[in-house]
């Protein structure tokens, strides 16, 4: 028996320290709920769980981004729905005024409503925004520029690749125009089925005032040179028409003409164009669509830019994005007004009402197609949102197996360590008491 070194007490103390350390670690895991609280617990497991945690947070944020994207689409689509309702109302007015029972005054009242409705379309286009970002004014659509003032860029679809496109404007749109001799009184002429009586008491100037008054109400311009009078529509294009009957009852119908062009380098061989006045739409079989407004004859180079769309981050990593293109739906883009604000549709005459129906059908189709595109974006974002939530759930479950405490297993260990700690404490007390027993031998 030795008194200089109490080996038994030292062994008991070492075991007590180990047990207390394990007991403290177990208590930390039980109180925090985490199996890994510091790198020493499991360095590899901590590295993996931290990566998973970053991925989960990114997935959750991407899911919120997707929900924001859906809100953006709902805002834009709701505004487009109102625009489509307005177009339907204008079409209803055009059908209404195409009826021969309506007088010129009735058509004028309808035209005033049409003008106000067109203004409202442009107002909706410029004021629809989300968190301060305009949606329908063209800033969220692919943009392109013209090399000169001959052409005004209007719209380019996402399928229009970045680069240069060459074309030649061969002819710009022309109004419907007719020239006739001012008849000698008494006589009568007819413009768009509206009869103008010229009696003997009227001077040439008075007769011109009557003609001017009728033409103003029909959205036409009048010009007089000597005894020659020229009437022309204020809007250009093949849909513009003047029905005229002279003093002899001879009827003449004249029409305007649409712009014409020649496609050059940059456009596919399958590309074709259609024109409505000076608004020209170029398409091919691959979804390519470009709209321009011709202002002057000549060669033109168009350059498109890989910009002008709204990007939604729909994934946890780089390049996991969705580019959404919001087309401009102003009256200019819908073919209802020119760039200088002149209306291309009119219900002031019966023929004008008939022609307006065709223009509105195209505009309604364009808005409907744009809404369909937004609908496809929304459906994709809904699917993306579900996928992101599922991925986040699965990764969270995997991370939980690595970093979270198994409470039942850990409680078993804690109980074991607590019993060992009590036993070690008791044995340490016994070991410390042994030197006292040696003293009894020395008495």
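Q: What amino acid sequence fits the structure above?
A:
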């Amino acid at each position: 028996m030795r008194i200089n070194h109490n080996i038994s007490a030292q062994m008991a103390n070492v075991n007590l320290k180990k047990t207390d350390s394990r007991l403290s670690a177990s208590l930390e895991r039980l109180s925090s709920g985490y199996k890994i609280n510091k790198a020493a617990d499991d360095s590899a497991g901590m590295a993996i769980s931290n990566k998973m945690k970053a991925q989960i947070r990114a997935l959750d944020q991407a899911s919120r981004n997707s929900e924001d994207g859906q809100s953006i689409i709902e805002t834009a689509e709701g505004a487009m729905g109102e625009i489509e309702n307005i177009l339907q109302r204008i079409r209803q007015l055009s059908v209404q005024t195409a009826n021969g029972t309506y007088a010129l005054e009735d058509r004028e009242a309808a035209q005033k409503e049409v003008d106000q409705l067109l203004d409202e379309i442009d107002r909706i286009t410029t004021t629809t925004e989300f968190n301060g970002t305009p949606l329908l004014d063209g800033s969220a659509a692919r943009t392109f520029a013209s090399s000169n003032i001959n052409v005004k860029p209007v719209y380019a679809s996402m399928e229009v690749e970045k680069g240069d496109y060459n074309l030649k404007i061969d002819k710009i749109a022309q109004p419907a125009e007719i020239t006739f001799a001012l008849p000698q009184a008494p006589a009568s002429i007819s413009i768009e089925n509206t009869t103008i009586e010229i009696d003997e008491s009227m001077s040439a100037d008075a007769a011109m005032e009557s003609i001017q008054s009728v033409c103003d109400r029909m959205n036409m311009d009048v010009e007089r040179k000597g005894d020659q009078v020229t009437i022309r529509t204020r809007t250009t294009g093949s849909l513009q028409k003047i029905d005229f009957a002279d003093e002899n009852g001879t009827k003449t119908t004249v029409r305007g003409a649409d712009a014409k062009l020649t496609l050059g380098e940059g456009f596919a061989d399958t590309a074709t164009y259609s024109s409505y006045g000076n608004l020209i739409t170029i398409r091919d079989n691959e979804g390519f669509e470009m709209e321009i407004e011709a202002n002057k004859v000549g060669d033109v180079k168009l350059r498109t830019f890989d910009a002008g769309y709204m990007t939604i981050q729909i994934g946890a990593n780089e390049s996991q994005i969705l580019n959404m293109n919001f087309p401009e739906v102003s009256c200019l883009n819908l073919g209802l007004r020119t760039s200088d604000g002149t209306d291309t549709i009119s219900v002031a005459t019966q023929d004008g009402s008939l022609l307006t129906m065709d223009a509105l059908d195209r505009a309604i189709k364009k808005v409907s197609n744009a809404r369909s595109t937004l609908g496809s974006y929304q459906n994709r974002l809904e699917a993306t949102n579900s996928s992101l939530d599922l991925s986040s759930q699965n990764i969270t479950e995997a991370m939980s197996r690595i970093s979270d405490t198994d409470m039942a297993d850990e409680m078993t260990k804690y109980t074991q360590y607590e019993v060992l700690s009590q036993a070690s404490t008791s044995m340490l007390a016994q070991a410390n008491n042994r030197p006292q027993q040696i003293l009894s031998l020395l008495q």
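Q: And what stands out in the fold?
A: The helical segments are 7-32, 43-97, 104-127, 204-217, 350-403, 407-439.
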